[in-house]
Amino acid sequence: MSTTNTEIPTLSGDAMIPAYVARPSGTPRGAIIVHQEVFGVDPGIRKKTDGWAARGYLAVAPDAFWRQQPGVELDADVPEQFQKAIDFMMNHDFDQGIRDMEAVIHWIRRQEGVAKVGFVGFCMGGRVAYGVAARTDIDASVGYYGVMIDQMLNEKHAIANPLMLHVPTADGFVPPDAQKAMHEGLDDHPRVTIYDYEGLDHGFAAEIGVRRDEAAAGLADQRTSEFFAEHIG
Q: Does residue 52 form part of some domain?
């Protein structure tokens, strides 16, 4: 059974991006795109998406791996599935993926008539949050434990709208030298805010599974909510 309920045209218009869309009860105060981790549009991502809709936003979670295999859903707590998820990420075309997110932004504004669009991504989605901030006209972006951002610092000049990054200092996928490069490259950027979470590891804000840290997730999510309230509505 597919967990997506909507199809969104690609930029070229020759294919459709599957997405899980959650709608608010009234007129949306804005829209939030929720970008998955490496595990797909799983119950945790759908829960986050539903949460934004409950707060009055049109919430859209695109299936990032649809070009490889639509409907991927893997369990972070099962080692074999974790490795399979990493394989999907290694084979993911991030440049194409960011263009797909741009298509979702266009669909929200043109088809759904919602002008202000925010973006929140986790893990690989945190990297995409940075890429979307640098390469599209997204109104505001948030990245949780984004990977490989240190390798994209040459794009920082293009970040025109607010970007918030949540960085756990003990992230096994983002070593200390990468975190240092991020701070050195971005701390003085007028549009970028970085929050460090001391001693925490990758995935601390996951909705499901053993990686979650309740206190840190609550703090990061509160900061994200206030950030979107200010910049999206």
A: yes
The CA-based diameter of the chain, rounded to the nearest angstrom, is 47
Asked if residue 157 belongs to a domain, the reply is yes
In a domain, 27, yes or no: yes
- Which residue of the set 42, 202, 213, 221 is catalytic? 202
Cα 120 to Cα 184: distance, rounded to the nearest angstrom: 23
Q: What are phi and psi of 217, to 5 degrees?
A: -60, -40
User: Is 202 designated active site?
Assistant: yes
| Residue from 171, 177, 188, 201 carrying the catalytic annotation | 171
Q: What is the pLDDT of residues 26-82, one digit of tens each?
A: 999 999 999 999 999 999 999 999 999 999 999 999 999 999 999 999 999 999 999
Q: At residue 36, what is the residue type?
A: Q
CATH number for 189: 3.40.50.1820
Domain housing 34: 6-231
Domain count, the chain: 1
CA-closest candidate to residue 33, choices 125, 110, 163, 148? 125
Half-sphere exposure of 207 (CA within 13 A, CB side): 16
Rounded to two decimals, the pTM is 0.97
* Spatial contact of 47 and 207, defined as CB atoms under 8 Å apart: yes
42 belongs to the catalytic site: no
**Quick check: is 1 in a domain?**
no
